[in-house]
Design goal:
Elements (H helix, E strand, L loop, with lengths): L2 H19 L6 E2 H5 L4 H16 L3 E4 L6 E4 L1 H4 L5 H21 L5 E3 H7 L10 H11 L2 E8 L4 E6 L3 H5 L4 H33 L26 H12 L3 H20 L5 H8 L7 E2 L4 H24 L8 H20 L1 E2 L11 H6 L2
Antiparallel strand pairs: 1-3, 2-3, 4-6, 5-6, 7-8
Helix pairs in contact: 1-3, 10-11, 10-14, 11-12, 11-13, 11-14, 12-13
């Protein structure tokens, strides 16, 4: 592969990552980027992704073949989204400064207020998802008190150190401050860990005595979910064992779409995918001969999308209320994975709603 061809491939990757960052998902699956590429192209793609990650432009979650990629804030500022991102950051800095001068104790600002600051209609409601993601990734707000994408409403809770953001020289200095604060936090966490390891080595030569360390005890929230469906264990096991219960639930329910697409060959996601896959009259996956019962299974999967996956994916303040609730949500996901496996696959005549992706591509 020539240098020019690799450069063109890198541009295509950044463009695709930018499109997804501004859209619903925010990330791109490594498998999707590798599909239908030659071995040489796949090698080049892996080199490019590693280089972009090393340069701090791309972040990766998961490992091959479940790896997913997304732009960092720095990556956004060097992508086709750069102009809009600069507009958002400049406007946010102006809004924070103006509001801070009027009320140093303010703690909340809204999507509507940010839009007003931008001149000439530079932000539309269709940009809300992108702006929300950029704000969270840049850590320019701690969290969102209210998120309603359908009604274009977001209220952001600001950081406790708002004065430093508001009085920064410009939006670049504001970003630099946050990045430096993150760097110092990571360094402090690493030094704290290293001190603990040295203390442990000094205190005991036998079995570690954790109580002897000057480290505050962490609440034990680890969950053992090894008895659940293997796919749930693979996706959410490490997260649950590490106490990351919100992420464990979210990732398990997001993966249901992938399992259904893989089993059926359908495209799409969410509620539309469930309608096509479990239709009462012409299902791709049949779980009952009786139409009413089949409809019930369809509503079971649609309910999982609307009541669990969507809130856990799009609302950062949604959390399991307890360890038991997290375990029960994961058990529900486990049941749904088993139903997908047990369902009878129906190769019905293709329609606009249910036609598999491969069939579409073969049409003249």
């Amino acid at each position: 592969m020539t240098r020019d061809e690799e450069a063109a491939l890198e541009s295509d990757i950044i463009r695709k990552l930018a499109d997804e960052y501004a859209g619903t998902n925010g990330w791109v699956k490594g498998g999707w980027m590798r599909v239908r590429r030659t071995g040489e192209q796949k090698d080049a793609l892996d080199r490019i992704l590693k280089r972009l990650e090393a340069d701090g432009l791309v972040k990766v979650s998961g490992t091959f073949p479940e790896d997913r990629y997304s732009l960092t804030v720095e990556g956004v500022l060097r992508s086709p989204l750069a102009e809009k991102a600069e507009l958002v950051l400049v406007s946010l800095h102006f809004l924070l400064r103006k509001t801070f001068e009027a009320d140093p104790n303010f703690y909340l600002f809204s999507w509507a207020e940010l839009k007003v600051v931008v001149d000439n209609g530079g932000l539309a409601d269709s940009d809300l998802t992108f702006v929300y993601r950029l704000m969270q990734d840049a850590e320019l707000a701690t969290q969102s008190q209210e998120v309603n994408f359908n009604e274009h409403r977001v209220n952001w809770l600001i950081r406790s150190d708002t004065e430093l953001l508001a009085t920064a020289r410009d939006h670049k200095a504001m970003l630099a401050y946050v990045q430096e604060a993150k760097r110092k936090k990571k360094q402090a966490e690493r030094e704290f860990y290293e001190r603990g390891v040295r203390a442990l080595h000094h205190i005991t030569e036998g079995e570690p005595d954790i109580t002897a360390l000057p480290i505050a005890k962490r609440k034990e929230v680890s969950l053992d979910i090894s008895y659940l469906h293997p796919r749930v264990v693979e996706i959410a096991g490490a997260l649950a064992e590490g106490g990351h219960l919100r992420n464990a639930v979210s990732e398990a329910f997001v993966a249901l779409d992938d399992a259904i697409r893989l089993r059926t060959g359908l495209e799409g996601f969410g509620e539309d995918l469930m309608n096509a896959a479990f239709s009462a009259k012409s299902p791709c996956l049949r779980l009952a001969q009786n139409e009413a019962e089949q409809l019930g299974f369809m509503y079971l999967f649609k309910g999982a999308v609307k009541a669990v996956r969507n809130p856990y994916t799009h609302k950062i303040d949604v959390q399991p209320k307890s360890d038991a609730e997290a375990r029960e949500w994961l058990a529900f996901a486990s049941l749904l994975f088993r139903l997908i496996e047990q369902a009878e696959k129906i190769d019905a005549p293709a329609t606009a709603a249910t036609e598999p992706a491969e069939a579409k591509k073969q049409k003249p």
